[in-house]
Amino acid sequence: MAEKSTSKSAPKTGTASKRGAKTTRRQNAEKGFTASPTLAANLQLVLVDLIELSLQGKQAHWNVVGRNFRDTHRQLDEIIDAARTFSDTVAERMRALHAVPDGRTDTIAESTSLPAFPMGEVSTTDTIDLITARLEATIGTIRDVHDAVDEEDPTSADILHAVLESLEQFAWMVSAENRTPATS
């Protein structure tokens, strides 16, 4: 005797969810919140700048020379590691929301807000200023998209808060290297 099926029919492949992109059984078998195109685009902007920050940090790491080299070299490693971790967290959050992160080199080059890093050896003093500017550019991107992200998805905004906290601390610590004490 054949058993009677009590399960409801599976969703049709290729149907659009209430929010966001068209889903397929293979891509989005799970249910849940789906990022709108705006949320996905805002997270993509952050992702691109974090990946570029890690790449430019590595360029600086390889080519920094001069006074206080070792400390600068090591501090760059900390920034690179953090940027890589943060970019992975943002990309994985995008996937959890059924958005597709794009970390391809041509995408990064075309869409980053960070200025290009100079070629060749760079003095420690200039490296400090250049990396501070890139940290601040990445922070600016996150702050620019924050409110829109928070309005749609507070969980993604929480991730951005953690990234901001860390990058702002790096910017302060790196920039302090070239500062002189303020006079009263």
Number of helices: 5
Output the radius of gyration.
21 Å
- The CA-CA distance between the termini, in Å, is 91 Å
What is the number of strand segments?
A: 2
Given as residue ranges, the uncertain stretches (5+ residues, pLDDT < 50) are 1-17
Largest sheet: 2 strands, parallel
What oligomeric state do these chains adopt?
single chain
Amount of beta strand? under 5%
Mean pLDDT across residues: 88
Helix content: 55-70%
Shape: elongated
Structural class: mainly alpha
Q: Output the strand order for the largest sheet.
A: 1-2
Order of helices and strands: HEHHEHH
Describe this structure in a few short sentences.
The chain has helices at residues 37-63, 69-96, 105-111, 124-152, 154-176; strands at 64-65, 122-123. It has 184 residues and is mostly helical.
Structure, described:
Helix content is 62%, strand content 2%. α1 packs antiparallel against α4. The N and C termini lie far apart (91 Å). It is built from 5 helices and 2 strands, in the order αβααβαα. Strands 1-2 form a two-stranded parallel ribbon.
Draw up the topology in text.
Blueprint: H1 37-63, E1 64-65, H2 69-96, H3 105-111, E2 122-123, H4 124-152, H5 154-176
Parallel strand pairs: 1-2
